Structures are given as structure tokens and as C-alpha cells.
Amino acid sequence: MRYSNIILCMLLIFSQPALGEDIRALLKKAVNEIGDNSQVPIRLPSIIPDIISKHGVKSVLGKSVSNGYSVSIYYAKEPSNAALAGIISGSTLTFESLPNTVSVKLLKGTNALFRPVQCGGSCAPANIWWQIEGVEYSIQLKLPSTLREEEQKKVIVEMANSMAMVQS
Questions:
Q1: In CATH, what number does 2-167 get?
Q2: What pTM does this model have?
Q3: Cα 161 to the center of its chain, rounded Å
Q4: In the chain, is it the N or the C terminus that has fewer CB atoms within a 10 Å radius of its CB?
């Protein structure tokens, strides 16, 4: 029964028209890399924002970590910090508040914390964090620093709202 639920969830998320076939295949590979080792249910987006996908996602790396999982998305076939487009993660480590964030609402009234791109000596990516059943999920996107804060929020909230469980 468990595997049929996993297959059904995977069909739902990976059949969404918002994802290109290449990105869909890469996300499937990431789920396989994580395997059954995640301590938390794996959720992935059915939408990769155009501002990311238009540059061509070339590789995705899935990792199981001691408290959850992470999926890193890259613009190059060889993963590197310079080619990083974003990170999606789930963790048993949760935060009630984070500095320099604003509260936003996701679908179903879920509270989330949003932090826009912040630049100093270099630029930190936009982030969003929210909790579902004691698990903290987050998305980190390298968005252009020239993108208005409201547009950053719109892009990352849309992606967060598209997250669906692919493995429990």
C-alpha cells in the first residue's frame, strides 16, 4: 500500500504541466537519490518559476541528511555554488522566528516566513520557511537583486504553494 501511495503522489507531482520534461526527470532522480532515508516526508514543487527555469536547469542533487532532506537545483551539469539556482529542503529542526523576515500566508492559511534577496559584500538568496505537521520546509532561490521584493515574494510563495508530498 505504501508504495502505491508513493507512486500515486509521484504521478501527481511529476505530471504537472508547469514542469518541463527535463526538470521533471531531474526531480525524479533527486527523489531516488534520497531514497527511503529521509526522516521527513519529501515534498517537491510542481512549479519551477520561469525566472529560474528559463536559464535552463541542468542538474539536480538530492541528499538525505540526518534531520531530513535537501534538493539542490543547478544551472550546470556539474554542481557548484556558482551554478546553484536554489535549494528545497525539509527538516525536523524548526524555528519559530527568524531575523529579517516578514510573515506571509500560504494556501490553506499556513503561516510562512519570507526573506528577500539581501546584498552586502555579496547577495544572499530569497528564502521562505513554513511548517507542516512538525516538519519545517524551506525554499531558497537565487533571484536577481534587481527584482522588486513584492515580485520575489510572489515567485517564491507560488513555488511553496505548489509543494506536494512525493514520499512519506
A1: 3.40.1000
A2: 0.86
A3: 10
A4: N
Query: Could you read off the pLDDT of 25-50 as tens digits, one per residue?
Result: 899 999 999 999 899 999 999 999 99
Rounded distance, CA 16 to CA 74, Å?
21
- What local confidence, expressed as pLDDT, does residue 18 receive? 47
Alpha-carbon separation of residue 108 from 66, 111, 124 (angstroms)? 29, 9, 29
d(CA 15, CA 27): 12
CA neighbor of 116 nearest in space, from 89, 149, 161, 84: 149
Contact present, 70 and 88 (Cβ < 8 Å): yes
Q: Cα–Cα distances in Å, from 59 out to 80, 113, 148?
A: 10, 28, 28
